[in-house]
Amino acid sequence: MSEPLFPSFLKLGGRKVVLVGGGKVASSKLDALLAANAVVTVVAPDIDAKLERDGVTLVRRAFEPADLDGAWFVVAASHAEVNRQVAAAAEARRVFVNAVDDVKSASAYLGGVVRRAGVTVAISTDGAAPALAGLLREGLEAVLPENLEQWVELAREHREKWRAAGVPIELRRGLLLAALVAKYSATAEVSAPSPRPSPARGAGGFVSLVGAGPGDPGLVTQRAVQRLREADLVLYDALVAPELLELAGEAQRFPVGKRAGRKSIDQRTIEKLMVRAARRGRRVVRLKAGDPFVLGRGGEEALALRDAGIAFEVVPGLSSAIAAPALAGIPVTHRGLSTGFAVLSGHAEAAYGPTLDSLAPNALTVVVLMGVGQRAAITARLTARGWSPQTPAAIVADASTPRQWSWAGELHALEKAEVPQGAAGVLIVGDVVNALAHVKKEVAHVHG
């Protein structure tokens, strides 16, 4: 367990800061130090030309402990051995040191930073996961209000008034919240914006609700690929293939997927992320597993975008409700066996129960998404409604991926199937499970 940190912000303007290292890493740190108006001395035997800046002192030699005399802060961006020497010299002088990618040598850690309108937000992972800090920074940047500068000005004005009036500090937070609510209630900015005509494509921000298909990147549409390549921001589901995200090039990528039993970003927050990014003129791709409009809450997102006056489109994807059975050699309809199918959410009994109760036994093929964890309850519900325990049933997990796994048997044995831990599965119940039993192996072999 890492040592607890005390978060703080440093005023380095006009103060000496020593940067040990002369390569690309040091160059990236120099930008941040100069932005804080620090007086920087760079020490390294070889110094990249990118570090040659006005006002920066360059010392072209190996580090010496005396280089830290008079320093307020030190950044060690060299090799591990040099970083340890810098850390020891800094410790002796009671100067904090940030050792880049060297947690043991550091007494200070830099975080992912968002700066806007006089507000600075920094995220730290105690030096253990800087890449995660960067992702969290991108997420925070996306949800901060566009008019943050007005918030700051309002807070500044009220702070001066409250100080002059002697208002206790412990009361000011509640008063500020009330002031913000009053301001935006009066200007109707708290409520959802009224709909406005959708801007023409290319005239500003735009959102694409894109279906990523069942998992295999080769099963997405050409338009989906095009939208990913055009994107500035991709908000993607947990089951989206990493290879598909690579098509987004330099776009920001932020995971917003929901997995059963795991904490996740709520739906309203996802909608706010899309709206705010689009209002800033960004091309947003909301990349959803399967098809956006098949149990993917794409309809809710479309309504949120419409109500906010954001131009958007829907790029359909291949739904796992059809693709998963097909990849296991199971047609959801088959002449003489089933002329239709019902697609249900297995998330909770309240979601699938009423529909199952309304179906006559074997009237339709039943396909349940997100139902692996509820398969015992689903079996009980069907048999209670008159479905034979010998009705063919199947599970297809992680369809179209190298991890694809399937099971076929009878309804009464469905709950006993040992599904791989963490796999996303589709349940299929009906006579169609055995329709192509003699070619199942061939279908699976061709896919693999």
Question: How big a fraction of the residues is strand?
Answer: 15-25%
Query: Which sheet architecture does the biggest sheet show?
Result: 5 strands, parallel
Compute the number of strand runs. Answer: 17
Based on CA atoms alone, the radius of gyration comes out at 29 Å
Class from secondary-structure proportions: alpha/beta
- CATH structural fold name of the largest domain: Methyltransferase, Cobalt-precorrin-4 Transmethylase, Domain 2
For CATH, the homologous superfamily of the largest domain is named as: Tetrapyrrole methylase, C-terminal domain
Q: What is the 3D shape?
A: elongated
- Termini Cα gap: 43 Å
Whole-number tally of structural domains: 4
Mean pLDDT: 83
Structure description:
With 448 residues, this protein is of the alpha/beta class. The protein has four domains: 16-110, NAD(P)-binding Rossmann-like Domain (Rossmann fold, 3-Layer(aba) Sandwich), CATH 3.40.50; 148-186, no CATH class; 206-318, Cobalt-precorrin-4 Transmethylase, domain 1, CATH 3.40.1010; 321-447, Methyltransferase, Cobalt-precorrin-4 Transmethylase, Domain 2. Helices cover 33% and strands 18% of the residues. It has helices at 24-35, 80-92, 130-143, 148-165, 169-186, 222-230, 242-245, 267-279, 298-307, 320-327, 349-358, 375-384, 440-447, and strands at 16-20, 39-43, 57-59, 73-76, 96-99, 112-116, 119-123, 206-211, 233-236, 252-255, 283-288, 312-315, 341-345, 365-369, 392-397, 405-410, 425-429. The strands form four sheets. A five-stranded parallel beta sheet has the order 3-2-1-4-5, sandwiched between helices. It has a five-stranded parallel beta sheet with strand order 10-9-11-8-12, sandwiched between helices. Strands 13-14-17-15-16 form a five-stranded mixed beta sheet, sandwiched between helices. A hairpin with a 2-residue loop joins strand 6 (112-116) and strand 7 (119-123). Helix 11 (349-358) runs parallel beside helix 12. It starts with 15 loop residues before the first strand and ends with a helix. The relative contact order is 0.07. Mean pLDDT is 83; it is low at 186-202 and 439-448.
